[in-house]
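Usage

Read records sequentially. Each one opens with the input sequence:
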Amino acid sequence: MPNPHVPSSLLARHGEALDLFGERVHAVRPDQWDAPTPCTDWTVRDLVNHLTAEQLWVVPLLRERRTVADVGDAFEGDVLGDDPVAVWDRAAAECREAFLEKGAMDRTVHLSYGPTQATAYCSQMTSDLVIHAWDLSRAIGADERLPHDLVEFTVREVSPYADSLAGSGLFAPRLKTPPDADEQTRLLAMVGREA
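and closes with the structure output:
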């Protein structure tokens, strides 16, 4: 029986975000892996490597209930090897299965900044996938339009902490948008990206 405290929409959005990013990974041409992305200093390979490593963390943290310290540097450096697409596919599938497991969303995950509800972890992972799917789309010349439900979800997730993102050093400063900007443009501006 599903947990009444976990909206089914959260797991649905997470699955959609994994699929969206995965579609973009599959669209990368062999000559595009070294191409620049909107993420300063990251190539397409660096971006896909980052997201793949993020998915690889889910099994030890969520299923195995290990801490960041327990896992150590297992996912640092290049995790993609000679077949980036296959490694992404495997990591995404294992991540999806871990979040869908019975009771998984009731757990507490021990992240670098402290204990976090699995639902919050899943929400953060979903938003990260959505934002970086846009980055990857722009880098490889794919369709940059993000699905409306994923944009709405990510705006709700990111809005409370959008102003502090630039301070993390991982995001460019928030940009201003015109009053008539659509929701995707507003989302991208929140995370320092120009549509």
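Summary fields computed downstream for this record:
- DSSP finds seven helices and two strands in the chain.
- Residues 8-141 form a domain with the Four Helix Bundle (Hemerythrin (Met), subunit A) fold (CATH 1.20.120.450).
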